[in-house]
Each structure stands twice: as C-alpha cells, then as structure tokens.
Amino acid sequence: RSVKSILLKYFIILMLGSFSIFADDLSETVYFPGEDHEITVIQIKGREPGNTVMLLGGIQGDEPGGYLSADAYLDIRLRKGNLIVIPRSNLPSILNNTRAVNGDMNRRFGEHPPIDYEDEVVAIIKKYMQKSDLFLNLHDGWGFYNPVYIDKNRNPRRFGQSIIIDAESYEHNGKKIELMNLAQEVLRLTNANISDTLLHLHLMNTKTMDPNTPFPDMKLTATYYALTQCGIPAFGVESSKNIGSDTDKALYHIYAINAFLKLFDVIPEFPFLPYYPARNCESFIRVNEEKEKIYRAGDTLFCDMGDNIQITGYKAIPHRGIFFDISGTGTSNDLYRKVTIRKEHEITIRQDSHIIGKIHILPRKESQRFLRYLFTVNDENILLKEGETLNLRPADKFIIVEVISELFDSKEVKVNLKGWVPSMSSNPGEDRGYTIRGSELNWKKYSVYGKGRVYPVVTLLNNEEISTVYISVDHPLP
Ligand SMILES: [Zn+2]
Question: Domain 12-268 maps to which CATH number in 3.40.50.1980, 3.40.50.1220, 3.40.630.10, 1.20.1250.20?
Fold first, then answer.
C-alpha cells in the first residue's frame, strides 16, 4: 500500500476523532487522540466464545487502584470469553490526581444534553456497556465500609474495601439479575486471598431504587446505567484510599476482578506473555571512563584507536530477549563486555533471532574512507575521494562545495584549505563555499614538500584531521 493511502486513512481517522489498531485477538481504539481527555479502549477476544466483561478504571482520577489494576489486564490473552478495558476513562482528573474536573464524571450517566468532555467520554462508555455481559467500575473509596458503625473510618457511610450493588436483585426484560448472590460469591473468593480480616471487602447495598435511600445520586452512576439501561449485572469495586500503597490498592481490585472472571467463566491464559516486536531500542555505550551516551539503530559511534568501549545497558519495549553482538570480538552476547578498538566494528542488536538494528563503531582515522569532496571547477562538479588530487590551472575558479559522508552530518566537520584565509570570515578554518582562483594558491608554507604546487584540503572532526585531498596548481615556471 502506498504511503499516500496510509496518510489519507490516517487523516480520515483524525477527522472522525479516533483510530484503531487491530490484531486477531486484540483491538485498541483511541478516542480523542492527542486531546487532554484521550481514552483508550482495549478489547481482548478469547480463543473460545463466552461472556464479555467490561472493566472501567480512572473515572475519578484520585483513585489509582482502579486504573492500575485495569492496566494489569491489557497484556493478557483469554482462553474463553472477552474483555473490554478502559483503564483511564477520566484522563484530566488522573493527571491532576483529583476526583473531578467539571463535576463528577460518575454522576453523568443520567439523561441531559452534553456539556463538557465528561459527557463525550460517558457516551463512549455507554456504547461499550451495550456489548458487555458484566460491568465493573473500579474505585478507591474513603475508609472501610462496615455494615455497623465502628468508628469514623469504618462504618456504613464509608465506601472503601467493598463490592457495591444498587439492589439485592433487579429484573430486566423478564430476566432476574441476582446482584447480591453474585457479590457474595465474589466476596468469598476475594477475601480468601486476604489474610488480614480488617482488609476484607464487604457487601454494600446502596438500595438506589429505594425512595428512602441515603444515596439517591447513585441513579446517575455508570453501574446504575449498566444495570437499568443495558440490563447487565453491574458492580462498583472499591479498594480503600486509606491503604498506603497504590500497588496494594490495585491488588485488592485484581482479587475481585479475578473472582468475577471466574464466576462469568472468562478464562485467562496464565502465565502468558504476548510477543511484540521490540521498538524504541536505545543502547547506552561508554567510551573509556566518560559518561555513557545513547545510540540508536543506524547511529555511528566515533572513537579513537585504542579507546575502550562498553555497552553498559539498553532500553527497549519489550525489554527481554535483546542481545548485542560486537563484530570481530567476544561472543554473540557482548553486553557489558569491554572492547579495545583497533578497527571498525558493527554492533548487531537482536531480539532473539531477529536483527532489530545496527550501530557502527568507527575509529575517526577510518572514517576518511567514507568521505567524498564535492568541488566545482569553473561551474563543473567534481567529486574527490580520500588522497586524490584535483589538478588546476591558475586561471581556474573553484569552490570547495561540501564534504559528503553517510556517517555524519557535514555540519559536524570543518573543511580547511591549509594556508588559505578568506578575506572576510566569521568561522576560522572553515573554507567551504568561497570562490577561489588557482592563481591565489601561491604560498609555500603548507604546500606539500613546501614546493608551492600541491595544497592539502583537510576535514576536521572534533578538531582532529580525519581526511585529506589535494589541489595541485600548474603554476608557470618562474
Ligand atoms: Zn470513586
């Protein structure tokens, strides 16, 4: 396919405001790409058909247990059933670690005309609920829910460490959804993992349909919408804000999510590490005792003969299965190996058997072989290689136009016609671009053999001469 058609497709997608990446068992759709409220929806399709479980994280941004636990389900694969995961539904609130930006996104599921970005996101969440058989809204609540009052942190008004239902059961199109029975079974499985009984999760029934409910605004939440409008079982899963570690908060969610998956017969492959081609590989290479620098595939590392180089580490996504082979030395596994440079080398970077990049190690003196000099002589182009001589007559006009190398940017070097000084120059030692007459080359000091006939043009990289060509002028004999 042509680049043009891919670009065209990309523009169309941008205009629609979302783009998708599809594989057989995985799709990733990004809505509002590049916006503050970008959301990513990951759908994982099992090898066998089954129920679809939807996980919603980060609807209130100061509840990291929810979005971090949702993240844990993005790289899994399923033997049976399907997952829809929106780990970060309210990105602006997450980036600010605050509950709400323009008002609580989890009170936007009632009927009202769209006002803010929250409503645009809610419309997308609702769309995915329609495809689901179970909806879980992942939160970190304050304190610890307890059916009886113990203290101000542990009582029936606290939400932390609970599974929340809107009613004991709910009837939708003649089908009875047994919320309490399901939650109790989930609590049994979840709490079996938690040895500290003070951290056990409890059942919290907000009795949302009850006219006397203490929580009437629950009618505007995602779970209530999923239950009453989509007719699917829906639960709030709450870890506690009063648990210090975000990892622990996420872990209690994971116990509960795993219990729900089990009940709904959605079976993950475990353990399972999906294969991704490595990308963004950066190698950290140290020369002698200097600080290491970052090199990417295709880069050239210039050093001097006798320098010691060492690959001290790397970054790649994914990180495992990456190996470095420095040609002509060591083994095929040269990470951390110190190598003294006496010649040119190539570092081959492999992800297992796949070559994912090469880095060139070039002693500066060797880099001359890759240089070409472009001159114009009386407006005609002439290319010279290392050591070659350009023969001129005194009347010829020439310009050192450029040096060309695949190994470095020509701006990194200086090109100097030794002994010649332009009449007005702001960059000493840089002689590219000037029109010079052959007859001007009449000094003896720098000419080869001091005879006033052959003049060196040198290229300097970091003030070191790496290459020379010559200009010979056929002066009439005195
Ligand atoms: Zn919350």
Answer: 3.40.630.10
